[in-house]
Amino acid sequence: MLSKAQISLITSLQNKKYRKQHGLFIVEGIKSVMEFISSSYEVESIFYTDDANTKVGKISHNIKSHELTETEFQKISALKSPQGILALVKLPLQQKIVPSDLKNKFSLVLDDVQDPGNLGTIIRTAEWFGIEHIICSIGTVDAYNPKVVQATMGSLARLQIHYTDLTDFIPATGLKVYGALLDGQSIYQTVWAKEGLIVMGNEGNGISDEIIPLIDQAVTIPRLGQAESLNVAVATTIFCSEISRQKLT
């Protein structure tokens, strides 16, 4: 039986304020929940329907589990087509990232990316291309927003996401900084170093005026058609793909 207090708690976690207050975030869907169970994250409790339980199999006895009716589950799910399983996962402690963590690799830097779907796709893309760290500005959408978590399809369980003041952090790394700008060198003519930061900007405004002076190499994806701009998640995928291509050839 689902109590009013449980419903209130779970629905409140749609809001960042209450995620921080309770130290919890929501994961929905069979694949995503199983990814977090298998990760270093601590799953606090799971709510599931009988149908979902037969698909999931055995859940650890260390995790509090609650079987719900389909009607009860609808009250806590934010999805249009729920899969019948939802987990409450403890927010990780924010570990301070140090420049040495980023040596000999490329990392993504997100400057005020606002759309949850974009951030989720970027996280999923980063994992595909072997990027371990994503450094976000304070104004970037919360990675534990349920829509972001859903869009990552479990990749969030394995990447390290950091929020910090970029104007202080970027210079402190000592790494070469590449920025996605319209007036940069073609991405297909850029010779990438063995390590560096890739800065992607806000959906509407691009990279902010405070960050542009910190960029060493402006890079652009050549435009052949008439579209005004590329979606930031799509552009990030192209950047990751081209860097990976050069590393593999």
Automatic annotation (TrEMBL):
Assigned protein family: Belongs to the class IV-like SAM-binding methyltransferase superfamily. RNA methyltransferase TrmH family.
UniProt xrefs under PANTHER family: RRNA METHYLTRANSFERASE 3 (PTHR43191), RRNA METHYLTRANSFERASE 3, MITOCHONDRIAL (PTHR43191:SF2)
Name of this protein: RNA methyltransferase
Cited InterPro entries: Alpha/beta_knot_MTases, MRM3-like_sub_bind, Ribosomal_eL30-like_sf, rRNA_Methyltransferase, SpoU_MeTrfase, SpoU_subst-bd, tRNA_m1G_MTases_N
One of the record's GO cellular component terms: cytoplasm
Keywords of this entry: Methyltransferase, Transferase
One Gene Ontology term from the biological process aspect of the record: RNA processing
Gene Ontology terms for molecular function: RNA binding; RNA methyltransferase activity
Pfam family, one: SpoU_methylase
Residue ranges of domain RNA 2-O ribose methyltransferase substrate binding in the record: 26-95
